[in-house]
Amino acid sequence: MLKSARKQQRDPEGRMPLSDHLRELRNRLAKAVLAILVCAVVAAFYYKDIVDLIIKPVRESVGCKEAFDTLSQKDSKDHCGNVTMSGLMSPFTLMIKTSLVAGVVGASPIWLYQLWAFVAPGLHRNEKKYSLGFVAAGVPLFVAGGWFSYHVLPAAAKVLLEFTPDGALNLLPLNELIDLVLRMIVVFGLSFELPLFLIMLNFGGVITGRRMLGWWRGMIMGVTVFAAFATPTVDPMSMLLLAAPIVVLYFIAVGIAMLNDKRRRAAREAGPADDEASDLDLTPADIGEIEPVTAPSLPEQADGGRSGSRVNGYDDVT
């Protein structure tokens, strides 16, 4: 009963007191954390399969076929690495970390929806449409960046192990190997979000599409330098695999920004939307000369007196 009454008292425009905002934030955070924990518990039963999936490209590329295989390193110029774990608690720690990461990824639709549901009531209709579009475009862009890193890692691992001195064994701690793979996936995924970030700045009115187009030389140089540092290999092919898609996405973002600028100019000429307030013109205007206002005189009294004399026992009409 109390809950239904609270819903009826809620403002139709989504406004509510600070205490209600904090209560809603607490509830949505609780739902997001619960979803992550449930997914993490489920992932704990399959964490070995998840670990194998993460390190599979590196293991197939540079992993030794036998433990501490020194014969293959002596007879061949290709060096291999032995995936190892050290410490009694390392397997348990690895299981906890892998399960939590898998829980965050697996529960991402739930906690992203909770974040959206908390922010959405304060947005206009067109802002809701744009934010949904950004989320819909950001997820596949991040996945595409992670896919590129997943396929660049084998070549990077081969190049890095070529620096191993002759007769030395390569020990690849599993914890560090998983951290490296996940770090590469996150870096590549976020790099693919750069064009989307520029589009968000354009839709927010911070930069224009023409200004973004003027940055193309510096942007290509910056992306190339970033690709050189992000890919640990020294071959140009790996750098192009990362730099070329980002440059293409940048020019696509420039085209979308210029179209949005054109649409914004047309919308400004048409006037504000139904759920937006119009701009106020605060420019001072000349109102001309003001004529003095004189109070009306009191009617004459019955005894022949004029205004200012007493009327019915009072000094004025009141």
Automatic annotation (TrEMBL):
* TM segment ranges: 29-47, 94-118, 130-150, 180-203, 215-234, 240-259
**Chain segments annotated as coiled-coil in the UniProt record:** none
One Pfam family assigned to this protein is TatC
Q: Which residues form the signal peptide?
A: none
- What membrane topology is annotated for this entry? Multi-pass membrane protein
Region annotated Disordered, chain positions: 290-318
Identify this protein by name: Sec-independent protein translocase protein TatC
State the organism's lineage: Bacteria, Bacillati, Actinomycetota, Actinomycetes, Kitasatosporales
